[in-house]
Design goal:
By secondary structure, the chain is of the alpha/beta class. The protein has one domain: Vaccinia Virus protein VP39 (Rossmann fold, 3-Layer(aba) Sandwich). Helix content is 27%, strand content 20%. It has nine helices and 15 strands. An eight-stranded mixed sheet has the order 1-9-8-2-3-5-4-7. Helix 4 packs across helix 5. The protein is globular. It binds S-adenosylmethionine (SAM). The site of S-adenosylmethionine has 23 residues, from helix 1 and strand 9.
Length: 337
């Protein structure tokens, strides 16, 4: 049964479709549900009563835990308010690993602290058997001068040439600043956010399931990293856009035989355990202490994957938008989920 859902986007209600997925059959589940913030989805009314929303969430969270393999992981993305309830549901059926704090401006709410992060709850199905890999990301540098942002004093020569281990606070991935003319979905995640979760917990050919696929972020990430995917999406138009984008995606996020995440012509996430295989692809600062002002570089730019045109457009757009500070609320409305 599971084969008929593999590597395609299926349009429909995830609660119905999940019934067809066997217990313990999927390596990773990722859910980015509607946040009940009155977003304008084409087919879904994002304004349920408080308890009605939570009851609905509990149903699909149970399904995600059921279909995840004993070696598998469950990720759920939302605003902290809803994640506190999700945690009480998930604590009964899975094992808490981390609350990943994704540093990104969120909708202004209330009059106390300005919300500045989304949360991604990270649970494993079993306490000990889960696959989890350490990851590294590039050192943070001053944009203009290229110097390391952190002062490591006399210890610069001891730094890992690629970059530090990834913690549970992610500040290096920016939200896609939404442009309605280009993309008819109100909230689309950056694909390299998913790359990171997929590299963290799955291997080649593993199955990644996303019950709220939107316009295909998780499926594209899975495919370009050589994983299989199952995607459900209620809305016909979003499902179609997602399928078209997936069809144009290649499984090519690789250096040699090693899967890595690329963004803006750089390698931005690797597995720590892959470094021995990867280091030959890079020009490494030498002597080691010049890492302070010298970035690690790919030896050959032809090793960068040919990304599809849609992705390049998004990246170029994001690059320009990153430099624009958003000061008034009408501008903010455009970029917030
Ligand atoms: C927050 S968006 C997901 C966006 C997605 N992560 C992306 O990057 O494109 C939530 C999606 O869930 C879909 N949805 C809502 N209820 C659903 C249901 N019962 N089954 C499947 N999809 C549903 C909505 O149409 C919407 O596209």
């Amino acid at each position: 049964m599971i084969n008929s859902y593999l590597n395609k986007i299926t349009q429909g209600n995830c609660l119905e479709l999940l019934k067809n997925i066997p217990d313990n059959s999927v390596d990773m589940t990722f859910a980015d549900p509607p946040f009940n913030l009155k977003k304008k989805y084409t087919s879904y009314a994002d304004n349920l009563e408080f308890q009605e929303y939570l009851n609905w969430c509990e149903l699909w969270l149970k399904e995600l835990a059921r279909v995840t393999k004993p070696t598998g992981s469950i990720f759920v993305h939302n605003i902290p308010k809803w994640l506190t309830f999700y945690a009480t549901f998930l604590n009964k059926m899975a094992h808490f690993k981390h609350w990943i704090s994704w540093d990104a401006p969120t909708s202004p709410m209330g009059k106390s602290l300005q919300p500045a992060h989304y949360g991604i709850l990270f649970y494993t199905k079993t306490p000990k058997d889960a696959k989890i890999y350490e990851l590294r990301y590039p050192h943070k540098r001053d944009r203009k001068q290229g110097y390391l942002l952190k002062d490591y004093g006399g210890k610069k020569g001891l730094l890992h040439p690629f970059g530090p281990l990834i913690s549970d606070v992610w500040t290096d991935i920016h939200r896609i600043k939404h442009n309605r003319k280009r993309d008819p979905h109100p909230c689309q995640l950056p694909i390299h956010l998913l790359d990171r979760l997929i590299l963290l917990t799955t291997d080649e050919n593993d199955i990644v399931l996303d019950p709220f696929m939107g316009t295909g972020t998780t499926a594209i990430s899975a495919k370009r990293l050589g994983r299989q995917f199952i995607g459900f999406e209620l809305d016909e138009m979003y499902a179609q856009i997602a399928q078209e984008k997936v069809n144009k995606t290649e499984s090519n996020f690789k250096l040699g035989e090693t899967w890595v995440s690329f963004y803006l012509k750089q390698v931005i996430t690797i597995r720590h355990s892959d470094w021995e295989d990867l280091e030959n692809y890079f020009i490494i600062p030498n002597p080691a202490k010049v890492i302070d002002f010298q970035k690690i570089k790919l030896k050959n730019k032809h090793w960068l994957p040919q990304e599809n045109q849609h992705e390049i457009q998004l990246q170029n757009h994001e690059k320009t938008e990153e430099n624009v500070s958003c000061t008034n609320s009408s501008q903010q409305k455009l970029i917030f989920k």
